[in-house]
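#random but structural
TW: two for the price of one
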Amino acid sequence: MSVTDEFLRRHPDWVARYGERARRHGVEDAGYHVEFLAAAVEAGSLPAFEEYVRWTAGVLAARGIGVEFLAENLVQVEHRLSGDLPPGDRDGVAPFLAAGLDACKRAPTQTALAREHPLDATVQVFVSALLAAQRKAAVTIALDALARSGSIADLYVELFQAALYEIGRRWQRNDISVADEHMATAIVQYVLAQVYERLPIPSPTKGRMLIAGVAGELHQLGPNIVADVLEWHGWDVRFLGTNVPTSGILGAIEQHRPDVLGLSLTMLTSLPQFRETVASVRGRLRDSCPKIVVGGRAFGVAGTHWRDCGADAFAADVREALRILG
């Protein structure tokens, strides 16, 4: 709250222009900055906080808010933390805020963001179908792509994953609304179900696997894709969904007795829950603990921190998961 109060004292025109929304969104944004800062510090990953700042700068720029306001907000967060934290903790946080301020200087322009990811023609058509709410067309495009490639992994990575990334970028650029983004994600989930019904799932020969997102993890499509592809490659997979409490994961392990436990983490802010889950699984099962393989964007930007959390391997995408698991 004090960070937002300081910002609005410096910019009274924001209150005149936006009214109470200026304070509400200011408090919310400052909370996000501190939350992601704390997660990046815990992970020991400067790149994770730099990526968050670049992403935030792009979101704000697309909504007419200059990057200089984000930089000012980060300075105000730094001043507040300097008064609240003991010296040792201040020294630990300072490099992250410095990296964030440097990322503000290097944040891409909206034009650069728009040109950064040229799309394959099939992905373009698929994204158009998603945003037009054309479920049947989206299914047809996906099945046609599968027939051409013959690889379920290629379909999931080069069509579904690419389309979802593009949808996220369009929301970041303010080209589509939150409702559009949610609708597109829901249609992809529908298409996944339609494709799955048509897959010739073989008898499991490679072992048992349990896949879940830990408590606080809300992004379901990534682990859903991994579950489908691994099942198609001969694994006996149980997909629990996401936001699963540690007790639920432990109970499912006792029932299914998996050889591999796959855990998904998209946001570093759920890192404490991830640590708790891994520690609980290892503490309860000890020598009979399944191999723990993790995936998700959080570990993609946090280097080898997955290893420090007690996991055995990290897969950047479903193809990497196939390589690791065979």
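TW: number two ↓
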Amino acid sequence: MTSGETEPRARLDEFALIAKLFAPLTQNMPGAFALTDDVAVLAPPAGHKVVLKTDSLIEGVHFLRSDPPALVARKGLRRALSDLAAKGAEPCVYLLALALPPWPDMEWLRAFADGLGADQAEFGLSLVGGETNATPGPLTLTVTAVGYVPNCALIRRNGARAGDRVYVTGTIGDAGCGLRLATGNAATVSEGARAFLVSRYRLPIPRLSTGLALRGIASAALDVSDGLLADLGHVADVSGVRIEIDAAEIPLSTALRELWGDSIEARSRAAGAGDDYEIAFTAAAPGSPALSEIARRTSTAITPIGRVVAGHGVAFLDRAGKEILVETKGYTHY
């Protein structure tokens, strides 16, 4: 093969594809057996529990065919890592299942594998196994991320209590705004804002260092994937409480405000947009000084956005404390 050629995928069978592109991603994990066996073997550190998360990325639902393949791979991995971050878990390894339609060629797949390699280096984990299949349907990648958390340190969804404050990392709504731009939205926006928002859609940032720092401080947490209001609804349901969110406190980026503005309508739209992969969490009110230190140490903004009270459900409130009716609280899969 000469430089510049596109190598047809048909030249490689399943095992050659694995050996050429994916086995090198296991080089730091002896228990993966270089993907030559049916299983991998892991031993958790003493005094730790294993934390598992599976997440799928589907063409046309979670990414666009026109998205760069390296970013598709990294988004697939980062979505699962974001869940580990919200649990206070440290990632170790992952498994990858690929359902491939005919269209990705070797150039696309090589860039895809390079994207995985880049994120492995950034986040300190290795591939240990998975599956490849052909499909007539959309390209689908499924990542199972494996992490460790010290005994009794897991941050679940069910710990929110009346009197807690509600917080979120980063900014909200950027990815939803970026998706609209990536799919041909003709809105007038500066090139810098457009690039930032589309990047937030294509390449989320799992808040791993923040999640680790929240051990023993957050009473409940989850990552914001379907939408801030929808996801906090899960915390409210399993904790048996009511969560009140102050619309005026939702953190919005400068780029988003350039496109959507700063009205209540814009904030409602952002709070239901989804794909943010920030951490929403609750913590006892006296925890503010510790959270300020965590924000400083991890270079990640942490914003108080509401409170936990007795009752049920999630309420989105204006400055007068009146509930705002939000048409879409988040993405629904069915």
